[in-house]
Amino acid sequence: MYNMDAYLKSLTSNAVKLSKKVQDGIAENTREFRFENQAHFLETNEDKMREIRQNLDSRYEKEKLDGLKRLIAMISKGRDVSEFFPDVVKNVASNSLEVRKLVYIYILRYAEQEQDLALLSINTFQKDLSDKNQLIRAMALRVMSGIRVPVISPIVILGIKKCVTDLSPYVRKIAAHAIPKCYQLDPAQKDALLDIITTMLGDNSTFTIGSVLMAFNQVCPDRLDMIHPQFRKLCKMLVDMDEWGQITALDLLLRYSRTQFLNPQGRSAAPVTRPVKKTKPVAKSFYSDDDSDVSHHSSDSEDSSEDENHAVDPDLAFLLKCALPLLQSRNSQVVLSVAKLYSHLAPAEDAYKIGRPLVRLLRTHREIQYVVLSNIVAIASQRPYVFDPFYQHFFVRSTDPVFIRNLKLEILTLIATEGNITFVLRELQEYVKSSNKDFVTQAIQAIGRCASNIPEMAESCLGGLLQLSYSKSEPVVAESVVAIRRLLQQRPQDAVVMITQLTKALDEITEPLARANMFWLVGQFCSQLPLVAPDVLRKAAKSFCSESESSKLQILTLGGKLVAQDGTSSKTINLLFQYVLNMARYDLSYNVRDRARFLKGLVYGQQKAGQENVELDSSENENGLLDSNNNDSSELESESLQGGGFEYSDKELNLSEHVRKILLSEKEAPIQENPSHGREQYMVGSMSLVLNRSVSGYEPLPDWPTVQPDPSVRRMAATMEAPGYMNDRTGFGSDSVYAQSRQQNSSSSSNSNTAGSRTYDGQSGAYRGAQTLDKFLESSEEETDSSEEDSEEEDSDEEEADSDEEEESSEEESEEDGDEDDEEEEEEEASSSEEEAILPAKSTRSNGRR
Amino acid sequence: MIESLFVLSPTGKVIIEKHWHELIPRRVVDYFNDQVTKSMAAGEDVTREDVLPILSSPTYQLINIYRDGLTYLSPVTKEVDPMMVFEFLHRIPDIMQEYFGQVSETIIKENFVTVYQLLDEMMDDGYPLTTEPNALKEIVPAPNILNKVVNTLGATTSVSTKKMPSGMSNLPWRKAGVKYTRNEILFDIVEEMDAIVDSTGKAVSCEAHGTIQANSRLSGMPDLTLAFVNPRLVDDCSFHPSVRFNKWEADKVLSFVPPDGHFRLMSYRVNLPSQQNLPIQVKPSINIGANGGKFDISVSLRNSSGNPVENVVLTLPLHKSTSSLTAHCNVGQYMFDPVGKVLRWDVGKIVQRERAPVISGSFGFVAGSSDTVSNAGYNIGVEFLIHSHSLSGLKVAKLKLFNESYEPYKAVRTMTKAGRYQVRA
């Protein structure tokens, strides 16, 4: 019985203990539950700061996490919480991964300020580099390389070297990312880093290679010689890289190609001309199937120089072909990078391929549209034919932001052709109805530009503009009269009819700018308007007092021109002019008074000193006020030049003899520049292009070389043996050769093999590299299957002498596979000797890896 | 190089800031806000959306995107491809959408530790690192009910360490070791119609933009091949990174290993012949006098292959000097927004052989408004939705699965919506 009692007692006490424990647990946890909403971390005050320190010292992971989250919150709000550094660093070796991740974020942020304390954490990272979890290894290296403490750079390099040979491509990717960070920390380590980069360039994992190229671009962008042996491999891997890697790779390959290949356009060819349509099928057959891409190749450029289409270096053609599928990427920068590649490298007849994908990007976010449209403007000003089939996509919607519609208008004027101008014009006239004044102005100017770009359509454009000049809206009238004036200067043959039409509306037009332009027009063409011109002067004289200053100036000029035209024969005109002169003499504006005096002197022959100056001044006035835009500077120049062309040194010169020449000389038609003229000088895709000014850090593309660089350097690819760990192909679900062979049955893959040997067959010199590359890829696939072979090869790699022999023999083996005749064997020997010459570079590479 | 990111609230306050490279002082945000205010003050009809995506300060180029009321601002010091920055910045709200279901100031504040970790993983020292949602979810766990429960009910450290995946998948876009008891994959083909229709009812430009959204819940490493009945219809397309380009080039089939969960498999564009494809016809007539105008807009069904057209909404932005509006409609409801000067007519569903919905009424201008008002053109925005209808007629023929032995449940839905559809009056 007693036993029973005791048992019961212990049971109850246990139960009480248990329930208390559970309660405690629940109480703590419910507190946590409240904390699930992370927003409260954002509210902090001084009391809480003390609490944070306590939390960090706590034994419980939860409280540590709590404190850390608060710290992160304050960092993200931009507050300086570096005072907690010692408390945080203590937790770097925490068992909880969650805690550690937050500690890392904190350390990365403040290590630079607390260098000595940061060193405390290094040991943990070094230990983590050997962790069996790849994410932890990667994280450790990432944090270590991110700590900006110069002292540790040798340790970081050791860490990178360790991770470069990691089996996980993710860790290797992080290692590649660490390289530029280390370089920034300590530029003196460049040589060691270069060795690492050289090793990593041999990596065959599509997961890693993009980051390696990024490191290359950061650390040694000029060492393009390191790319030679990898060029073809990189081209092949392009489709399988991740999207950001593709961007980096395309950038690098673009720069590489600009230094290594000759301009496919030929030295003299101007790309602006529209290629004949029939070139399209030629270009298509050039790329349409895998087998034919190299068949156009010829070893020497002797025969190919006759036909420009075939002058494309086969390696360049290979790059262009490999980049083409990326136009279907969902990443708009990848698409734009390919467009960049094509617009700076491809022959003109291939450029049309980028049109459709770029237009597709117009369906995405507003900001992306902005960049695409800016680039289209630049490309279209050089090669309008790329975009003219898509003119409908550049029609402006009422919901488009201002910057989008201005760019669209500009593109429409650039790509207008005889075929689509009717639609474009109709569309532009629709825009004039908009309630936004700026947009209306832009639209009218666009119509004017269309007309001057396509002379065939000028007449209908003029008709449209004339229609607009009857509009009720004053800005529309003003802008269309200006546009008409500009066009008539280019097309004097239409002037008489148009001006007669315009003057009919003179009484209704009140806009000063429009009136000024009309007076100038009438004056300029007065010889062809013997009836209209004097009548306009009469009307103008009548309304002189109420005119604006710019109109008054133009009326004076008109009068001067009429008198100069008819001499002093016509009494009426003389009287009218003198009337106007008298009015002007008492005008409020000194400009008008000045102009009147000058014209009086000029026309009625008063010779005074200092005429030159007066004349120059006045012509400036005339032109400055004539046009609201500054586009007509050429006119100004022409007039003052022609004025200045006389020999004033002759003191006896009577100016009035030359009055007609001075006043009525043909004025050079203004050149209408697009609003964003000048964009095309920048590299496609760059920020400088979008902003149309050089942004700091902008480097223009190198010019094409004038002499063909040695193409054989790229052949070395065949000798490259990647270490086994680098051959884990991540492109299982992708386009790589490997994936294809996995996808398709064995028969089709063997097909591609035979196709390869067939096409590369009979190619001499430069092509052998490509052939061996194919073989190389095939053989490396086999290697991945058996790891033993790999390790053997690594061994052999280390012994230089052996490796030389082995590579040569393997080279020969691969040659034997394809059926080749004697001639080629000779060439092969030649090539292998070249390889020997290049080999030292390789041996340093293997040293570096050791 | 993308150096820093500031996420700004609609009022221009910093919600979160992240520096990947070096610290950029916060005053750049004040400068940016000034610039935005300045450019918005330039004209009365200038909105936040009209502000240039790249503004310049003396030291920085202020690259910014504006989405869902939030501004993502990234100041850069050196030349960089701006498109890459925009592309990356847009990925951030995309990922947040994927993680939290929606994006707003409150959502970011509620999940800021997760957001901060995401930002940390997406970018390394100014270069994009991991941007695939599937891969990110391996590294930064998404907040879901299960995680919350696990966290609150005591099981802390041991579980979270175990949760750390030991092996990442070889495919950046797919998690390893996915397992479902019920394997299914669903496709949504959504086509949006972009059109500009002139006042006579003729389409000035007209095209269909389609996307194939997929929701994959398949175990293991399935390898799928999706074939279309009529792939030649597709004029231009872009793919998810998982899709093998060369298979499409060669056979016009989509061959891919899908990511887990929601993803956009493909986007495509189809050019439509202009006339017969318009599903509905909007006939506007707007007459404007000096002091106001009258309008009369009717909507009728044209071509929707017998399906009802739903969610029809017409919006008519009126001139800024409009002071009053009266209207009457026989179907649906209308609303006039006196601040934004927009008339919105919610027509609802239109079924064949019912009387055509009509709205008519008049509006007046503020006294003394200029002549330009009476000349201005009007644009009507149109929205609609048609279920199980494809504008282009693109059809899925079959879906084959390789590399796994189970037979998944497969389904395809189609839908047509109005995209940028605009009628000129």
Automatic annotation (TrEMBL), chain A:
It is found in: Endomembrane system. The lineage of its organism: Eukaryota, Fungi, Fungi incertae sedis, Mucoromycota, Mortierellomycotina. Residues 779-837 have a biased composition (Acidic residues). One of its GO terms (cellular component) is AP-3 adaptor complex. Keywords: Membrane, Protein transport, Transport. Residues 265-309, 610-643, 724-850 are annotated as: Disordered. Pfam families: Adaptin_N. Belongs to the adaptor complexes large subunit family. This is AP-3 complex subunit beta. Residues 621-633, 740-753 have a biased composition (Low complexity). PANTHER family: ADAPTOR COMPLEX SUBUNIT BETA FAMILY MEMBER (PTHR11134).
TrEMBL record, chain B:
PROSITE patterns: MHD (PS51072). InterPro entries: Adaptor_comp_med_subunit (IPR050431), AP2_Mu_C_sf (IPR036168), AP_mu_sigma_su (IPR022775), Clathrin_mu (IPR001392), Longin-like_dom_sf (IPR011012), MHD (IPR028565). Keywords: Membrane, Protein transport, Transport. The keyword Protein transport applies. One of its GO terms (biological process) is vesicle-mediated transport. The keyword Transport applies. Pfam families: Adap_comp_sub (PF00928), Clat_adaptor_s (PF01217). It is found in: Endomembrane system. GO terms for cellular component: clathrin adaptor complex; endomembrane system. Residues 182-424 form the MHD domain. Belongs to the adaptor complexes medium subunit family. This is AP-3 complex subunit mu. It comes from Entomortierella parvispora. The lineage of its organism: Eukaryota, Fungi, Fungi incertae sedis, Mucoromycota, Mortierellomycotina.
